[in-house]
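Comment on the following before class.
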Amino acid sequence: MAINFCLHGSARTITEAVTRAKKAEDLGFEAIFFADSHMNNVDCYQVMAMCAVATKKIRLGTAVTNMVYRDPTITANSFATVNEISEGRAIIGMGTGDGPVYSLGRTATRLVDFENGLQTMRDLLHDRGIEVPRTRERAGGRVTLKAGRRPVPIYISAEGPKTLRVAGRVCDGVILGTGFDPQVLEWAQARMSEGAKDAGRALPEIDIMPAGMIVVDDDGNLARQRVRSRMANRAHHNFRFTMETVPENERAGVERFMAAFDISKPIEERVDPDLITDYLLQRFTIAGTPEECVGRIKSLEAAGIKRLLLTPPNAIYDQVMQAWGDRVIPRCVS
C-alpha cells in the first residue's frame, strides 16, 4: 500500500471497540486511534489492551490523551505496557487538552509544560531516564522505566505554529489537524522544520499524518452533505489557534462560521450547515465518490504523505469504514 489509512473514533463499549478494530484490520486499515474522553467513552487504555489481544497487526493509539489528567510518567508506563501486550503496535497520541478537559472546568496544559512532559515521556521510552530532584524522602538522581516494551512513538495533535515547532523538536510524528489542503501542509511542514532545526533534527525524521472527516458514497453530493455538520467541530478547533493559513478571499466566510459556532450545543448542532463553506468542506474532509476520494488521496501521496487519520461520522461510522475498505483502499494499493 502506497499510503496508509488510520481510523479515529470513540467507543461506548468494549465490544464496540474490539469489533471495530478487528473489522478495520480485515479491511486493511493500518491503525485505529481511540479518543480519551473519560466521561463519554470507555477507558482508552483498557480498550487498546483488549484490542491488542483480539488482533494481530493493526496498530493501536490514542487521538488524543492529555497531561491534565495523566502525569507524563504514568502515560509512558501505560503505553509501554500496551506496547508489550500488542507486541510493538502502540502509538502515543497526545494533546494539550480539549473537550474532555474543558467540559469538566479544567484548563489545557501550557505549551512549555506540554513540551517538558513530552520530553519526559521520550526520555523514559528511549531508556535515557529522567532526573528526579533530591527531597527529604529520597536522595534524587536518575530514574528509568523498568517495565513494558520500548520505545513507543509519540505523536501530538497540532494546528498552530508554536505546537508544530514543538513537534519538530521532540516528537516522532504529528496528527495534523489543519486538514488536507496541500498549501497548508507546506505551511505546517515549514513550522515543523523550524522546530526540528532548533533540536538538530531533520524534517524527514517526523511523520506527518493529516487528519479529517470522511464519507464515501456513489452519490458524491450525498457524501458531502453527510459529512458537513460533523466536520464543523474540526474546523472550529483549528481556527482557534491560527487564521494565518486562510486565503484572503476565504477569510470572511471563515469568520462568519467562527462567530456563529456554539460549542455548548451537541457536536452536530453547533453551527448552521449553510455556514460551512466549500473551502472548509474541501480542506477538512475527503468526501465524495470513490473516484473523487482516490483523487484527493493521490494528491496527498504526491506531496509525500505516508498516512492519513480518518474519522467517519458517528451515525454512519461502520458503514463508511466498510465502504472505505471495500472501495477506496484497494484503489490505493501500489
Notes: The longest strand covers residues 207-216. DSSP finds 13 helices and twelve strands in the chain. The CA atoms of residues 91 and 153 lie 5 Å apart. The domain at 4-216+305-332 is CATH 3.20.20.30 (TIM Barrel).
